[in-house]
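Weekly sync, protein design subgroup
Attendees: M.S., D.O., the rotation student, P.L. (late)

Item 1: inverse folding check
M.S. brought a backbone from last month's batch and wanted to see whether the design step gives back something sensible before we order anything. D.O. pointed out we never logged the input encoding, so this time it goes straight into the notes. Structure tokens as presented (705 positions):
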């Protein structure tokens, strides 16, 4: 073979190899394009696109009258897509200066020059998701949309508003521990109503498709969501904002007066168990009282004298005592197994009735009764307490409820002094809400109901679920025992330790409590002295109970610690507020005693007076009233209208008018009005009927200086 042929053969083989390689590449491209193309496109899409969840609007928490207790307020994150298709270079630079000025004026966080520099740099770099401002409210967003460039719309300006919601309580601090708050930690939402009804409040999340930009920044593909979020349900509570405000104010005042560490107050509706007010205040490190912990349901302590009612009711049920039986309290001390129990009265009360034992809160009297009849029958006594449901949790709507602790004979910590100590409220532990539920049952003819915080679950004004009153025990005791218990509770306020709470308008029934607080292994007395807990629990009106209430003040430190002085005034202030604002509690007026005196009325517009007298159903004699403005006078059983003529360009007669009507007439006449006092006009410095001098001053003397 010649050299030439050999070279041509080798070149041909090389070309043939390249041809095969080219065909292989083409085949691979075709295979990828048409066989594996869909798979690679999906992979590319999954890398550049991402589904994110959209939080729904969290439901509102409402007071019993529909007022907001907690709501979600939208905030917005403002960003710009500097490569938006409609954002033209000339539009951007033409509006840049004025946009920077408007942003600086509205947001106030940067000067105009800095906004201008940052916007220009972001535009030059073609940033797709440039951050303008975080946490912009709705009012600011509306203003932003009217700014230069932004007013052109999203496509032509690149402006994007990303919504995020923040939880807000309009009545700052009011019942905040009961309302609860949102927690982003691992435990989730557990506090208050926010936690217990989280599943109802949070709604259903939506889905939105986002594009992943460089740096991991996400930008929405469109304004629409793939799956729309569903708003959460609203929770209608039993809380009355007005009463809640009074309860908190009264408690804070008493805590400050007595320099106490913390305290709580609860108001409950007797029949339904509705919690109308619940406040928990604790002194913080700066000496201010705030809602830091829900002591009303979460703190279990030895209740002291408020527990005496249960002890005596057990003895009534077993037929051991009557109200008129006498007990010798001697000199006010008694000792069991080396433990001396004392009355508050150092001299002792001597021989007194069971009724008086309770009214004067005699520790010795109660201990002697229980020790006499239940020594050797301790289980019978404890079973009576258990039968009144004092050892059971209430399973409240909100989390954090303490567990009552009433030990049983044979338990590890039971001792020879357990029975006498328990009889007057020691060696037992209960939260304020448990004590209140027991006393509420006395007010409710023996029926114990579960305290109710939430009445309805609603969705856009439509009721989804109604939470009915739950009966824990239809009758905690016999009718005769109930009658004796109520007589004792009324006696405490009429003649006993809470005489300072009695009043003429309505009767209160209740019990004072003053208990020493144990300091774990150190006992009741430490080097710092004895710490006390003062309480008062009861119901009103005593003859027709509608509301029950408990007030507990922990660690008052100004040498005053008795329940009637420390906790009682808070109870009384709450009760007075409820009574004064609840017409259904007020006694009906005697229909035979007719009101003979007609009401006073100021001079004014006839149509306004017509409306008022019509609503009051008062007879009017308007036969001679021809003018728009009238004065009034009283005749027998009627109000008589008299003409009050107002003439143009003449100073009007405004005597006997209210200030608003007088100002209207005088200023419309061109006069400058100077007012002295308040009430109705009794004199005017410029006589009526003289010609008006525009701009002249006229002084009005009012009835109340």
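Designed sequence read out in the meeting:
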């Amino acid at each position: 073979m010649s050299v030439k042929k050999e070279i041509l053969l080798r070149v041909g083989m090389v070309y043939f190899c390249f041809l095969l390689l080219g065909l292989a590449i083409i085949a691979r491209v075709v295979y990828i394009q048409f066989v594996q193309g869909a798979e690679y496109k999906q992979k590319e899409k999954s890398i550049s696109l991402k589904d994110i969840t959209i939080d729904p609007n969290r439901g509102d928490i409402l007071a019993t009258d529909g007022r907001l207790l907690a709501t979600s307020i939208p905030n917005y994150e403002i960003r710009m897509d500097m490569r938006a298709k409609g954002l033209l270079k000339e539009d951007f630079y033409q509006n840049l200066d004025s946009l920077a000025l408007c942003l600086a004026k509205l947001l106030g966080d940067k000067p105009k020059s800095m906004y201008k520099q940052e916007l220009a740099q972001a535009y030059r770099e073609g940033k797709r998701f440039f951050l303008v401002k975080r946490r912009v409210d709705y009012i600011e967003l509306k203003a932003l949309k009217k700014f230069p460039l932004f007013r052109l719309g999203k496509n032509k300006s690149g402006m994007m508003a990303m919504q995020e919601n923040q939880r807000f309580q309009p009545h700052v601090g009011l019942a905040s521990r009961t309302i609860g708050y949102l927690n982003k930690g691992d435990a989730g939402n557990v506090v208050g109503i926010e936690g217990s009804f989280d599943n109802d409040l949070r709604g259903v999340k939506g889905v939105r498709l986002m594009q992943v930009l460089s740096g991991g920044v996400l930008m929405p593909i469109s304004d629409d969501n793939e799956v729309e979020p569903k708003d959460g349900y609203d929770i209608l509570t039993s809380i009355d904002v007005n009463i809640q405000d009074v309860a908190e104010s009264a408690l804070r005042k008493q805590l400050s007066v007595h320099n106490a560490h913390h305290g709580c107050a609860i108001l409950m509706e007797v029949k339904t168990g509705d919690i109308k007010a619940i406040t928990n205040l604790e002194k913080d490190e700066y000496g201010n009282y705030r809602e830091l912990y829900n002591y009303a349901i979460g703190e279990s302590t030895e209740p002291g004298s408020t527990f005496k009612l249960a002890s005596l009711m057990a003895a009534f049920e077993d037929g051991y005592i009557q109200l008129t039986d006498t007990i010798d309290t001697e000199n006010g001390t008694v000792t069991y197994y080396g433990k001396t129990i004392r009355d508050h009265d150092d001299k002792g009360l001597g021989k007194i009735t069971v009724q008086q034992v309770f009214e004067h809160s005699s520790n010795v009297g109660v201990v002697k009764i229980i020790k006499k009849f239940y020594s050797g029958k301790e289980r019978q006594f404890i079973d009576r307490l258990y039968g009144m449901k004092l050892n059971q949790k209430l399973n409240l709507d909100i989390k954090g409820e303490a567990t009552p602790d009433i030990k049983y004979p044979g338990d590890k910590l039971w001792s020879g002094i357990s029975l006498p100590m328990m009889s007057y409220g020691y060696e037992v532990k209960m939260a304020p809400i448990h004590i209140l539920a027991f006393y509420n049952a006395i007010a409710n003819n023996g029926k114990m109901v579960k305290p109710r915080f939430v009445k309805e679950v609603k969705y856009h004004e439509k009721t989804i679920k109604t939470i009915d009153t739950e009966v824990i025990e239809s009758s905690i005791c016999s009718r005769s025992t109930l009658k004796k218990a109520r007589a004792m509770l009324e006696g405490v306020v009429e003649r006993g330790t809470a005489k300072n709470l009695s009043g003429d308008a309505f009767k209160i029934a209740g019990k004072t409590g003053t208990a020493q607080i144990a300091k774990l292994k150190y006992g009741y007395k430490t080097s710092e002295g004895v710490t006390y807990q003062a309480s008062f629990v009861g119901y009103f009106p005593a003859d027709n109970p509608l509301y029950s209430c408990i007030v507990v003040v922990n660690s008052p430190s100004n040498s005053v610690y008795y329940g009637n002085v420390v906790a009682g005034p808070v109870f009384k202030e709450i009760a007075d507020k409820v009574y004064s604002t609840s017409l259904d509690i007020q006694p009906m007026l005697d229909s035979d005693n007719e009101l003979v005196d007609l009401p006073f009325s100021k001079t004014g517009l006839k149509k306004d007076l017509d409306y008022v007298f019509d609503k009051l159903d008062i007879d009017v004699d308007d036969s001679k009233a021809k003018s728009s403005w009238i004065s009034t006078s009283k005749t027998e059983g009627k109000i008589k209208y008299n003409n009050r003529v107002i003439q143009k360009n003449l100073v009007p007669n405004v005597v006997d008018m209210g200030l608003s009507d007088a100002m209207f007439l005088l200023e419309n006449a061109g006069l400058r009005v100077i007012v002295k006092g308040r009430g109705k006009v009794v004199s005017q410095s410029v006589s009526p009927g003289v010609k008006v001098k525009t701009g002249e001053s006229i002084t009005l003397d009012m009835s109340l200086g």
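Discussion: The chain has three domains: 52-237, 243-581, 604-704. The chain has a mean pLDDT of 86.
Action: P.L. to compare against the previous round before Friday.
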